[in-house]
């Protein structure tokens, strides 16, 4: 079964051309003229991939990306723009864009990017299913052996040192009356860190685990840097929190802390 694709472009000739190119390849295509209609389309059906114009009146491409990112959808997104810049490309990657190409683009460029995006989506789904199967198998094995398996993924909160608690369900870090809220992406990041305590995670690995898409070696640090900075700033409000995320030069990051043993007694 061919993929379902959403085309979003305010220029009618381009929109019609993209729709025809994709339909000739056998894809299911829905085409809309602005960001508002794109968001509405997502509320009505699921899409495997979206071709999205960056510059549109009203709700632009970045606005649509933010909405899709909040919904944690698996849709792969390709941005089309006549106003390409490294800054806007990186902004798009941070929000989960798969590719960024300039208009006018040839049909072969479009179809090649679409094929890569759909292939990565399938790969991502397979990885997630494999991880879920492994997790289920481990839990089953522990149950059979009479043991107790409690991973970070099953916990609502994790207590760090000095009584600092990370509440994964509420996306909060708190100690006493002091509370700091986390964004959905920051919540994902700290959950990944907690599940991999003491292990060095590469930049590319972190982007995949947190954002769900692949990046090049130069893109991944750019995507992570502002996110790591924000989380570090929030952790630094608690005792020793500024030391929990360590940079491994040229590789990635490692997260570790001294357990608060008294909290479990």
What does this structure look like?
With 265 residues, the protein is α/β, with parallel strands linked by helices. The protein has 2 domains: 4-122, Response regulator (Rossmann fold, 3-Layer(aba) Sandwich), CATH 3.40.50.2300; 152-264, Arc Repressor Mutant, subunit A (Orthogonal Bundle). It has 8 helices and 12 strands. Helix 3 links the parallel strand 3 (49-53) and strand 4. Helix 2 (35-44) runs parallel beside helix 3, helix 6 packs across helix 7 (203-211) and helix 7 crosses helix 8. It is elongated.
Order of helices and strands: EHEHEHEHEHEEEEHEHHEE
Structural class by SSE content: alpha/beta
Query: Radius of gyration from the CA trace?
Result: 21 Å
Taken as a percent bin, the fraction of beta residues is 15-25%
Number of strands: 12
Largest sheet: 5 strands, parallel
CATH H-level homologous superfamily name of the largest domain: Response regulator
Distance between the termini: 56 Å
In DSSP terms (H or I, runs of 4 or more residues), the helix count works out at: 8
List strands and helices in order, with pairings.
Elements: E1 4-8, H1 12-24, E2 28-32, H2 35-44, E3 49-53, H3 61-70, E4 76-81, H4 86-94, E5 99-102, H5 107-144, E6 157-159, E7 165-167, E8 172-175, E9 178-181, H6 184-195, E10 201-202, H7 203-211, H8 219-235, E11 245-248, E12 252-255
Parallel strand pairs: 1-2, 1-3, 3-4, 4-5
Antiparallel strand pairs: 6-7, 7-8, 8-9, 10-12, 11-12
Q: In a nutshell, what does this entry contain?
A:
With 265 residues, this protein is α/β, with parallel strands linked by helices. The protein has 8 helices and 12 strands.
